[in-house]
Amino acid sequence: MLKLFYLPDTASLAPHIILNRLGQPFELVKMSKDDGSLHEQVYMELNPNRRVPMLVDADLVLFESAAICLHLADQDPDSGLMAPLGSKKRALAYKWLVFMTNSIQADMMLYFYKERFSNSAEGAEEIRTIAIERVSTFMSRLDDALGDGRPYLSGGQKTIVEDYLLMLGQEETLKSMAHLYALLCVLEDDPHVKATYEAEGLQALFSA
Ligand SMILES: N[C@@H](CCC(=O)N[C@@H](CS)C(=O)NCC(=O)O)C(=O)O
Predict the structure, then answer these.
(1) pTM metric for this prediction
(2) Where are the alpha helices (H) located in 53-169, listed in sequence order?
(3) Which residues form the GST N-terminal domain (predicted)?
(4) Which tens digits make up the pLDDT trace of 93-123?
């Protein structure tokens, strides 16, 4: 059975939502930043980065949330979790997914873990301020793309890209980006998202 190691409201949220979408049984293992579980030998042997998410699928061990989302979508190619292989919509889905993981999420790490990027408190604070600005600019690229009236980033079909967006979009500040905010409201109003929020103990941020 698929096993997801997760922390509530973190980079494991999108994989968790997609597991719910697949509708197959899976096991959840809740980790903690405080109880040492990320640093336990048995976890570190599988995931030396000591982070979540991690997906264990028989003898396959995956870390990196985007890789896990893509692998899960591949479990059921007819599910519509991704556009058809080779299609323009699929290419757009790759573009937005990689943009989110490689640009937006990478810079979010700078403000969530600012103390890891500077040896001084002032330096860390400066990094945080710059990173917040950069993430906001990157988010506005998504808002701009949605400005042409398309319902979802890759076109007319909701894919794993939107689950990834919702995971990164847990920010009050996004309420000022009209197109993005409208999409985030739609995305939260989804039975699989609601089930995932409930399992992780999260409150709806946009659709409440
Ligand atoms: N790029 C990675 C980021 C993973 C990551 O940073 N996870 C955080 C939660 S959002 C974590 O496990 N933090 C614990 C730590 O770094 O101590 C991914 O998307 O999987």
Answers:
(1) 0.96
(2) 65-75, 88-99, 105-112, 121-146, 160-168
(3) 1-80
(4) 999 999 999 999 999 999 999 999 999 999 9
